[in-house]
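LOG
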Amino acid sequence: MGPIATGLLMGIAGTAAMDVLAFAQARTGVAPAPNWAMPGRWAAHAARGRVFHDDIAAAAPVAGELRLGWAFHYAVGIVYGVVFALLAGPGWLAAPSFLPVWLFALATIAAGWFLLQPGMGLGWAGARTEAPWTGRARGLLAHTAFGLGMWAAAVAAA
């Protein structure tokens, strides 16, 4: 299997692992269930040229924003998986180790903290939320799950 196909599988598996964690947290009352409608709304407005909002919930609704949010979520995960597979190269893909993919997965949180969250009106790294440090910790845990999922897919593909 080539790096693009492996990266695609890694991105899907990583994103799915992140979702399993999110729904387990919601089921146990640790955190609310994810609502991908607002990131979907943000993605639609960003595609039309408006990246930053004071409050994405106050922005004009977009038809199918929940489906768009889920698609955006998985598309980003797939892009990350492919980018990592290409950067890691054939040596890593033949014998995947956890540390490099985990560090990469943690680094990907920067896009959420410094583009998506400010774009939705939540501030840098969720600074305008009710409990920013709780959100940041949950984000790091979610991205750890993402890294685990990507690594598991790479191991399976190897």
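LOG (cont.) second protein
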Amino acid sequence: MSVSQKTPSPGSRGLPEMDGLRSKLLFPIDGIDLSACVADADTIAKINPHRYEMALIDRIIWHDDRYARGIGLKHVRHDEFWVRGHFPGKPMYPGVLMVESAAQVACFMYNSRHTRPQLAVFMRLDDTVFRRAVEPGDDLYILCKEEKYSPRRFVTAAQGIVAGQIAFETRITGMSMSAGDTGEK
């Protein structure tokens, strides 16, 4: 199979293109500026309960008006806690953290619909497939698309994209565990 890939320059308006990727995405991203930032880490921290080394999203790039579709970014750094041990000499972002990164984008979308942040937890993962390694230095773009929503529960399809390739796909079910504050000020 012949693959043509274009690498974007800093500040470009899209992912590197790979033949056939567009048709495999959860939703069209043409026209979305992937260098944009609609929520930085500080804004995300006001909405999501995740803290310290478990705050795994660097920014929200885009979301629609209803918070039913969104894109987040995780820049995988060389100094993260897992690098030394997963795996020595060949660090790879653990699959469980890829899925957690997606869950945090889904949580941001869910919590953005509420007046006060909810403590939303995983209830279920379905159809999870890992297709490509993610390594330090990679930008992991996370696409989330709502499948079901209620004030107490949500189901979100998610994909992780790196260098124009799908790194993982999953379906996340989350549920609110409280109607209150995240506990962190």
